[in-house]
Amino acid sequence: VADHWLNIRICSGITVNDSSGQQISMTTGGSYTVVDDSTAGYTIVTPGTEATLLKLKFTATSENIDIRRVAFQLGTTASNTSLDLGGSQVTLWNGSVQIGTATFANNGDYATSSAIAAGAFSVAPGASKTMTVKGTIAGISSVTGPLTASGDLFIIKYDGDSNGLANGNYGVGTAGGTNISGTSGDVTPSGVRIFKSYPTFAKLSPSSTTLQTSSGYKLYRFSVMANNGDVALGKFTFTMGSSSVSATTSAYGLYSFTDSGFSSPDTAFSSDGLVNANKYINGLGVNADSTADAQRPIIIEVYPDKASATTTYKVPSGGTRYFELKATVSNLRTTTGSESVTVQLEGDAAFPANTEMTVAGTNLGATGVDIDANDDLIWSPISTTTSELITDLDWTNGYLVPGLPTSNMDSVTHTF
Description:
single chain, mainly beta, 7-stranded antiparallel beta sheet, 5-stranded antiparallel beta sheet, 37% strand, elongated, disordered N terminus
């Protein structure tokens, strides 16, 4: 009887709740996606540099995922090769910690990373983490290689079509312990352009912007620094605009100096630093004038010229040259009204289709670049010779050269 009474008391303590409880979602496991996180995109790199080639942002859902393997492939194989990489190898990084490598075997187009240790690259559910892919750029030599010319656009892609434990991309869900394949679809960055050396441009302020009658009025200033080797310059382009009443500009001369104070001329071409002999412009052997309205805006193309013989101008490795564009200013107004002249250094919007860096064409060297639609700046990394001749197959344009925008460097307006 006592036992029976106890059972009754226990049962009477049960409360029945017939309301709806929490919804439970069932899932077979987590997943992850991969997108491009590469900034600032396209860059210029030089041999021996450990360059950032790709940044991949991994995002996990449902559970924490350990990324264990990543697959890669080359992009635009017509313009690059795994020989662009020292040892044909890239390294994988979680911040400042290296977590793996991937080798393009037999100079092939595909590579799968080494196994990434558990916990080395773990992505929490609903969160993202960026993996950095780096590689050391191979040397350039026309004699010993492995690269024989500048100009390769090296693109390494995330090979999103290669999934699973055996073939490439996969992670492990830490909740369920199951293998999880990566996202399908490739991830392609802008890539890096390989040059043996390259220039860096910087705009400098003119000494004055008050327009005045002068035979050597200072219109524009900028500098060029040579990185990782000598750089040859074959052409500069300026655009002149005017809203003047009567003022004219003519006799355009580009002068080079070895100091930022513009007091020490570079005498490689002339005693006063004049780069375009006789102030010839546009390759015509004449001094153009901006008098006619039809000439506004006018294009001023400056080719380095020694006594009417077109050649190249060299900036030594690690050195900086300071340039100043001057012109004759005449016919300033004598009546009421304002005069203004605007000038800017032009950049290039795309890499030249006619670049002559790797194969001979019907046009040689700098001439091949100069017939391209994007030909405002022409320069050479001096990859294949030390003579920097305009006929060398080693010239390109100003596309995304550091400091020189694809449209133009900031303009300067002179007023009176």
